[in-house]
Amino acid sequence: MVQLEDLWDLYTHPACQNIRSLKEVIDETPNNVKHFYDRWLEIENKVQQEYKAPSLSAWILYEYQFRGKSFSELGKELDVTTNALCRLVKNMGIPLKSMSEVKKGYTASKEARRKLSKSLNGRRLSKEHRRKISISKRGGNNHMYGKSLSKEHRRKISISKRGGNNHMWNGGTSSKKYSPEFFFVMRDYIKERDSHTCQACGKGKDENEMALPVHHIDYHKDNNEEENLITLCTTYHNLTSKVNKDRETWTEMYKEKITQIYEAMGGKDYEHLQWMRADLEKRLPTGRVGGNEVRDAAG
């Protein structure tokens, strides 16, 4: 239990010089709303009797600032809403904690992080919002302003982020090479099926001014089924493949696109594709080519 002398000692603390009692708050309140504080007077009497505290403001100050209780915890203990308690604390002049102090030692649960990630998925900041953020980080407002990391420091950071130490690490799948079947057959076959057009942005090779890569929808380079391959431009291929996040979203989106492609395809078009595939399979090498593996996915 909180000792009386401890609470009285709080008033000598520098942070408590401007703390006001409940009576002072009520005295400064207009007469037509003073009745709203009747409940707080009852609570103060309860706190003084049960906790032997000199005043409600002293008790709140002690529990909130020095014992680290949150408004939510105090509200349940006093049987009041968090918002009502917050307003009273402000009126009493009790220093509020910063967000960093409130969150210190707090770790969100896996479920909370999942919900937050889902709520922010696809969210884009407006151009004006990004401009304001940029301005707020310029010059002296940037914590790295006027500083530079040494070569040794940068080397250590680089080492610390390699392989399994990197939160985006995906088991080294990006270094795995493509099979001859993909390189000699499926790559050209899928581009023909997709009319040599990016299935995400709708632009062709000429508009993109770069070769169109063929993407493995499930991210497994050994799965060369035509339903698992789709033509993308370099921009969307980088968005989809180079960053190991939102993979489930990209996979679902491209699977749906593949379904639409085959639903819209006529019988003659499919026959033409099968004839082309048979012709392309003649290109498959009978011996070993590059260790029976080929790296490049674009053409």
Q: What brief labels describe this structure?
A:
299 residues, mainly alpha, 15 helices, 51% helix, elongated, disordered N terminus, disordered C terminus
Summarize the structure.
The chain is mostly helical. Helix content is 51%, strand content 2%.
Rg (CA only): 33 Å
Instruction: Tell me the overall shape.
Output: elongated
Major sheet details: 2 strands, antiparallel
Oligomerization status of the protein chains: single chain
Strand content range: under 5%
- State the order of secondary-structure elements, H for helix, E for strand: HHHHHHHHHHHHEEHHH
Structural class: mainly alpha
What's the number of extended β-strand segments?
2
Q: Which consecutive residue ranges, at least 5 long each, have pLDDT under 50? A: 1-8, 288-299
Average per-residue pLDDT, rounded, comes to 82
Count the DSSP helices.
Answer: 15
- Largest sheet: spatial strand order: 1-2
Helix content: 40-55%
First-last Cα distance:
76 Å
